[in-house]
Amino acid sequence: MKKVRITAVRKTEYPDLMAQYENPIEHACDVSVGQQWVSVDGKCPVGMCPSAWDSMKSFAEALARGEGNFFDGWMQNPASAMISCNDGFRPVSFYLEALNE
User: Fold this and answer.
1) How many domains does the chain have?
2) One digit per residue, pLDDT tens: the chain, 101 residues?
3) Boundaries of domain holding 63
4) Starting from the edge strand earliest in sequence, which strands make up the sheet with 80-84, in order?
5) What is the predicted pLDDT for the residue at 24?
6) In 3D, which of 9, 7, 10 has the Cα closest to residue 90?
7) What is the value of pTM for the model shown?
8) How far, in whole angstroms, is CA 46 from its chain's centroid?
9) Is the dihedral of CA 58, 59, 65, 71 positive or negative?
10) Residue 72 backbone class (left: φ over 0; alpha: ψ -120 to 50; beta: rest)
11) Which residues make Cβ contacts (< 8 Å) with residue 58, sequence separation at least 6?
């Protein structure tokens, strides 16, 4: 199986939605733009947010198996995917790419 590099490429926050719908919380997302992880054998990397992993797991597993070209040409690099976590208040976009190691 291939290793899959996961890179946080964008982090957004929606204060208006947070004010309107979210209960106040003391600790939110720790992910930083540029942060990277490597998935080995399609497994969740150490330190990866479990909720973010749930959003990307099927794509990471497919890339690890050598699959790709999701949605018939969606990505310029067919061995990659752009996936966002499911936090509607502060979503993070992750770039997943199969490594040829």
Assistant:
1) 1
2) 999 999 999 999 999 999 999 998 888 888 999 999 999 999 999 999 999 999 999 999 999 999 999 999 999 999 999 999 999 999 999 999 999 87
3) 4-98
4) 36-39, 4-11, 92-98, 80-84
5) 86
6) 10
7) 0.93
8) 14
9) positive
10) left
11) none
Q: What one-letter code names the amino acid at 49? A: C
Residue type, 48: M
3-state secondary structure labels for all residues of the chain: CCCEEEEEEEECCCHHHHHHHCCCCCCCCCCCCCCEEEECCCCCCCCCCHHHHHHHHHHHHHHHCCCCCCCCCCCCCCCEEEEECCCCCCCEEEEEEECCC
What separation in angstroms does the CA of 46 have from each of 9, 37, 38, 40, 75? Answer: 19, 8, 9, 10, 26
Beta bridge partners of 98: 4
Buried b (16+ CB within 10 A) or exposed e, 58-89: ebbbbbbeeebebeeeebeeebbbbbbbebeb
